[in-house]
Write a structure and sequence with these properties.
heterodimer; A: about 475 residues; alpha/beta; 8-stranded mixed beta sheet; 6-stranded mixed beta sheet; 19 strands; B: about 90 residues; alpha+beta; Alpha-Beta Plaits; two-stranded antiparallel ribbon; 6 strands
């Protein structure tokens, strides 16, 4: 009989971490992957952050180019600002700043590698710990005995028994559905993200991009688009919530590709499109319905991607570990009730993922209203920001006159910018600094003060000899 | 760009996407969000392209976006379907 202590549906980074943790705790563990190997069904936007190395040092130090040839780390990020005419109106390149406290994070911001290499690499840790992996296996339902979860069944009616099942099966989770935790996401909880992979030579990437690991293309004509550089290629993708599209998502992604600036970059890098991918990505204010009797959901299946930028690998790994630890306690106590498994929520809330979600609603709201509302917000945000950053580069006027022109132009954006700041920026700051909004500053006062400050700027130039 | 040049599939025989015409409200959201344009509306009937198994990226956006719950989706048979080598 196929009897186990714990079953994990899904062989991505979260499922593998859960399997590794469970096997290390002495549990008879099996995990399932529908692809022929882990990672061949996955596309991923961004890279691995230094916090993975901080939290899992012994494992992460084994991630080497021999095992993941696509690895590329970089210390810089570039932000492009594209205006409503489709012109790159400016860009900023950033290295880690002086306030960064974790020493290794001063020299690199993300390590990027393809999922087709990373996922098998992390699955190997589970195998070494003694977990069993079944690939090319689609799990189609949960088994129930006397109303309780008793295992899973695959598409060929093979049955696997265990008193607890971890759903690590991604955004469209069979485990979530069959356990009654969730049928579908609401449209404002799930994004669709098409993505191109481009091939380019490692030498060109290094020569042209230098130490840049990624770029974000902020724009008034498409939702923010990310670019991630690997050893011999790069991803260009974008996403938005399913209720935010008025045209096909690929139409907007192609707008990025067809920018004059982007075409120039492609020519310079001698880059060729290599693969087209698409995936769903849950993006929530706060995870909920994370467990029930005999079932725990982790990673994308549980809605754990970061509420700010929806990075999912780190939260999947952290919640995978927490889920396996909870399952081990449940097995010791022989108690798989929803109530007992609520220890899982206590565990993940104590992690850095839990801390991230403390400001989840505010992060989600500002992100949705800014880069993912290109027409409503970015049409004024990009030119306003560009006035600040680059307005002074003009030699057609005396500089003092330019400053007045810039100030006046910025003032013209205030009817749109101020309500935005009140609605999204202050609540976020208040949350982060754990102070009540009105204690921090009185919005009414500020509303009236800012235009007054702008009014202090002289309308007409006073001549020096008049003063 | 031709999508087929940019995707690789392992063919499988089991159908995994279907639409229930009795539930479909013809809203067309599935047509809007499908990255590889597999859905179409002909004579006010929405259907998926017959060769979808050779083209589908398995993102399930059509399934998620369908508020009428008319679209049934299950991942294709283990070991078949889309392969992302550079995902």
């Amino acid at each position: 009989m196929n009897a186990y202590d714990i079953i994990i549906v899904g062989g991505g980074p979260g499922g593998s971490m859960a399997a590794k943790t469970a096997a290390n705790l002495g549990l008879k563990t099996i995990f399932f992957e529908r692809g022929r190997k882990p990672g061949e069904k996955n596309s991923s936007g961004c890279g691995l952050g230094p916090r993975l190395w901080k939290d899992f040092p012994s494992m992460m130090k084994e991630l080497t180019p021999e095992k993941c040839p696509s690895m590329r780390a970089g210390s810089a990020a570039r932000n492009y600002f594209v205006n409503k005419e489709g012109v790159v109106a400016g860009y900023i390149m950033n290295h880690p700043t002086e306030s960064v406290s974790y020493e290794p994070a001063k020299s690199w911001i993300t390590m990027n590698c393809y999922r087709s290499e990373f996922d098998p690499w992390i699955a190997d840790f589970a195998l070494e710990a003694g977990a069993e992996l079944k690939t090319s296996t689609l799990i189609t339902n949960l088994l129930k005995k006397d109303g309780k979860i008793s295992g899973v069944v695959d598409e060929h009616n093979n049955k696997y028994e265990a008193p607890i099942v971890i759903g690590a099966d991604g955004a469209v989770s069979m485990v979530a559905k069959q356990s009654g935790l969730r049928t579908k996401w609401a449209l404002d909880q799930i994004t669709v993200t098409p993505q191109y992979d481009f091939q380019a030579s490692p030498e060109r990437i290094d020569d042209i991009m230098g130490d840049e690991a990624l770029a974000v293309w902020w724009s008034a004509i498409f939702p923010a688009s990310y670019q991630v550089f690997f050893h011999d290629g790069f991803h260009q993708g974008l996403g938005n919530w399913l209720n935010k599209w008025d045209k096909n998502p690929l139409y907007y992604l192609n707008r990025v590709i067809n920018l004059k600036y982007y075409q120039r970059l492609i020519r310079t890098l001698d880059a060729k499109p290599r693969e087209l991918q698409s995936h769903l990505l849950p993006w929530l204010r706060y995870p909920y319905n994370t467990h029930t009797d005999g079932v725990i959901l982790i990673g994308d299946a549980g809605g754990f991607p970061c509420p700010l930028e929806a990075e999912g690998i780190y939260p999947a790994i952290v919640t995978g570990k927490a889920a396996a630890e909870t399952a081990a306690e449940a097995i010791s106590a022989d108690n798989f009730s929803k109530d007992f498994l609520s220890k899982y929520d206590i565990l993940w809330k104590k992690t850095s993922v839990g801390e991230e979600f403390e400001a989840g609603e505010e992060l989600y709201n500002i992100w949705k209203a800014l880069p993912f509302s290109p027409q409503e917000t970015m049409t004024w945000f990009v030119p306003m920001f560009m006035e600040v950053m680059g307005g002074i580069f003009d030699w057609s006027q005396p500089h003092a006159k330019r400053v007045r022109q810039i100030a006046s132009q910025i003032k013209s954006y205030m009817p749109k910018a101020l309500p935005f700041i009140m609605k999204y920026v202050f609540p976020l700051l208040a949350k982060i600094f754990e102070e009540d909004l009105d204690k921090m500053m009185d919005p009414q006062k500020l509303m009236s003060a800012i235009p007054k400050i702008m009014d202090l700027l002289p309308k007409k130039k006073k001549r020096r000899d008049e003063t | 760009m031709n999508f087929n040049d940019l995707t690789k599939h392992i063919s499988g025989s089991v159908d995994y996407i279907s639409i229930d015409q009795n539930k479909c409200n013809r809203c067309g959201q599935c047509i809007l969000v499908c990255i590889v344009n597999l859905w179409r509306k002909i004579d006010n009937i929405i259907s998926i392209s017959e060769d979808y198994k050779e083209k589908c990226l398995e993102c399930a956006a059509c399934y998620q976006v369908c508020e009428a719950d008319a679209i049934e989706f299950q991942y294709p048979s283990g070991g078949t379907g889309i392969v992302f080598e550079k995902g």
